[in-house]
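User: two proteins, same treatment. go.

Assistant:
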Amino acid sequence: MFKLDLTVSKVYKSFKDYKFWMQQSQIRKVHPTDWESSLDYLASGLRELPLEIKLLYNYACVNEKIGNYQTALQFFDFAMEIRPRWTDALFGKAVTYFKLGHFKQSKKCVKTAIHNYKNDSFEKLAVMQYFQAMCYKNLGKFQKAERDYAALTAVFRQDEGMLIRSHVVGCILLPLQVNRIE
């Protein structure tokens, strides 16, 4: 006979694990209309773990996604109180300010995010640089925007060249790898 083992300590322990709340909120985001339930799960997780930075960040991101911009900005700030100069939270603030039409604040946040960039960021540096160019463009600083766009074009050409080289190497090694499969 099947026995369901849901002791109070096991259930309580799962509630104290941020991964449980993240998983519940991700399951709810499958459909575009489910952002509100995702937000509810993240809020429940924050009640259990109020200083969990990943919950704070994702709560801010979902609020930004559904148009609760002031709440999003507030929770990005909470996340940065725990982890100052965090690239992802700064970029999230930049996107939120941009959507509000506050291009000067957006540029300031994205510039700081680029300055503090580390490889542990969810966002790629090129995305943030492109966003900075968009801020300059919206502020009427076309020379700075053009400079950033030109720098990105050079990076993309270099990345494209590296991709082509890897395909060429792959084509050379392909016959050797095919013979190994049995």
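Protein 2:
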Amino acid sequence: MAMAALKIGAPEDYMQLLKEHADIVNLPRIGTDENIAFPAVQANIAPAVALKDALGIYNPPHLMLVYS
């Protein structure tokens, strides 16, 4: 999705520079072979807990009213 947006909004000469750079540095193509700009992924791994438990001692009192 990010590459589709970049192709729509970025100038063609900028896209050409990104492609040349990706080829020169052997940039890993994450997700799709067309990905020349975003060489990383993010994995959020956390156990499932209730919001009030996740906030712990930093939970402001007004949030307790909303989630209790």
